[in-house]
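Feature request disguised as a bug report, sorry. It would help if multi-protein outputs had a clear separator. Right now it looks like this:
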Amino acid sequence: MTPWISIKDLKAHIGERVEIRGWLRNKRTGGKISFLQLRDGTGFVQGVLEKSTIDEELYSKVKKLKIESSLIIRGTVKEDTRSTIGVEISIDEVEIIHANETDYPISNKEHGIDFLMEHRHLWLRSQRQFHILKVRNEIIKAMREFYLNRDFKLIDTPIFTGSIGESAGNTFSMEYFDYGDVYLAQTGQLYLEAACMAQGKVFNLGPTFRAEKSKTRRHLIEFWMNEAEVAYYTHEDNMKLQEDLVEYIVQKVIERAEENLIALGRDIDKLKNVKAPFPRITYTDAIKLLQEKGYDIKWGDDLGAEHETVLSSQQDKPLIVEKYPKDIKAFYMQPDPENPDVVLCDDMLAPEGYGEIVGASERIWEKDVLIERLKEKDLPIEDYQWYIDLREFGSVPHSGFGIGVERTVAWICGLNHIREAIPFARTLYRVYP
């Protein structure tokens, strides 16, 4: 029997007869020879079919096949230096699985973004999307490897929650039987804090939701986030862990998906520079720098996308901005003992204008301080009683962070908009398909 081989593995089978199961990406046909562009989910290859090698009626059917029809081809793998994968297939057998009756809606011509998003279920088949999702897969794989190699435990945190982790103004609420209102999780952090008191070093990876009416190229309503939490970690320990993680992700993606990045037009040399340690600046110094550059911003204002771009554009690797004012940060962040007006937190800004990819802090571990902060933020103490309990029984200093998967994908791939960084984007005006 002819072995079924993936396109990505064809180079190891030069001179052998193989079987490819896939789809017709494109074709160029003539009277005596047809060039079939094929894909199978692992890569892309050209198949050359000569009329003399198969039944005349079947050759006629192949010539009439519409784009994205499914087929199985068999033939001999031949070296081809012009091919991006170094080979092509000399086809001697074709089995048509499904011949499309209508034209494939996404042709080689230019389409508007609304059209492509409306046909996202089909757009995923395109070559560009193939490369993006391959990189995304390698990013998530690297994240998991990094933690498991360091003896972190995976903790699956809940999607439904009664405790708000960030701002109440951007939550999705819903009725939960007779319990009352619950929220779609903005973060799994609070639950990871409970888990790190049991397991020491923990991480999660899952969907999170923000009901923000934002239409920027950096925002999604539903996105995936990886979070980590470590008992006995200080703010400094936390920043070092973030640096190590981001370096590991970037270097592993270069190692495993360099050809995909090149296909996307990414400048690999810029990514190769992403190695720890990363440059750091305090929020206070960042404000001074922005003011010197003529920006109308004062201490206590949050940094906007333009400000982040200005700060990070001076670097060839991510920039860590630390110690923000406590009034613009979440209730759970530990005050700086040297300056109680700021908290021991940091944001990591990706270079080249991609903005914040990591948000982090040392957590408040003293019960009285936490209760006071909950009151300052006007959050209901009773809803956080379980979280307060963590400070009642064996509390220790601890720290953690969250890294946005899609923002990381967008940065590493060099995408103009975050909607391409996730298979099915949920934006302010889109939940279809």
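(second protein starts here, but nothing in the output says so)
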Amino acid sequence: MRKGPNDEVFDPKNTLTVKKTLKVKVYMGNGWHLDFSRTHFDSFSPPDFYTKVYIVGVPADCGKQKTKIIEDEWIPVWDEEFTFPLTIPELAILRIEVREYDRSEKDDFGGQNCLPISELKPGIRAVPLYDKKGEKFKSVKLLMRFQFV
């Protein structure tokens, strides 16, 4: 373990100051109708997608937000923004997960991605999603904006 410039050792339980704030905007998703059968999520209607956005890192940085559910739409438009204050952005990861809401059973998995905060470039990005095994979907992407303030 490396020590700081004054021989201090990092303790994640200490009160930490916010170094930067990440704003994540989830505009929309597309591509499920190309990578999945029409009845994969629901037998009789288009899917009801929502997106979960997590920060995973030191305890002070961890957080979770969720978009509203867009019902009966293969190309959902959420247009929602979330703000995450970060104390140790070098150790934080942005986890994105899309699920399909199901009233009677467990919500269906629609894709995921994990991005190190240190690698995020500000701006609007098409973020590819991956299946549970880590295989990239051919077409499924989210249109998102990342902004540091």
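Even a blank line would do. Unrelated, but nice: DSSP finds one helix and eight strands in the chain.
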